[in-house]
Amino acid sequence: MNRKQFRPDKPPEWGSGPPVVFAHAWGLRSDEWDYQIPALADAGLRCVLYERRGHGRSDRPAAGYDFDALADDLAAVINHLDLQDITLVGHSLGRRELVRYLTRYGDTRVTRMVFVAPTTPQLRRSADNPDGWDPALLDANYAAVAANVP
After folding, report:
1. For residue 91, is it within any domain?
2. Domain range for residue 147?
3. What is the bridge-based pairing of β-strands 19-23 and 86-91?
4. FRET partner for 34 with CA separation of 20 to 30 A, picked from 1, 76, 89, 134?
């Protein structure tokens, strides 16, 4: 696929028609959607991809990696492109970003959401999520990642 140069004010997009905005998984970038985009654009959809801060071709600021900031970044893309009647598609962590966008900005611009491999309600086992993963396992994973961040 011939990718456009990513610019924060103009994310890569293909096709025309109703907009579909894609939020990628943690540790990946918008390239994860390369196999879906041609068919969706050919089907008459406007496919908009953006890189979450700190991922892919996005800037890597020292702060702002909480879900409020991520939702604000998504809102900036949506507002800049003046998107309406959006289908939001989120994979894994991208799903949480989309949910936070809805809780901060509402669903005025959003028609539907698609969750791909979601981790709902959360990964961590708790009293209200007895089927979640052992917290010690998750903590060890986070520690290993934090110890090896380039």
Report:
1. yes
2. 123-150
3. parallel
4. 76
Cβ proximity of 65 and 38 under 8 Å: no
Contact 92, 25 (CB under 8 A): yes
- Check if the beta carbon of residue 133 is closer than 8 Å to that of residue 124: yes
Structure tokens at 60: 């890597």
Query: Would you say residue 30 has pLDDT above 80?
Result: no
Which runs of consecutive H residues, i.e. helices, occur in 82-147? 93-105, 135-147
- Nearest 10 degrees: Cα torsion 124, 126, 131, 136: 50
Q: List pLDDT tens digits, range 32-45.
A: 888 889 999 999 99
Domain count, the chain: 2
Structure tokens that stand for 149 in this block: 């961040």
pLDDT of residue 5: 39
Residues paired with 86 in a beta bridge = 110
Residue 37 and residue 23 share a domain: yes
Tokens of 13: 């997009």
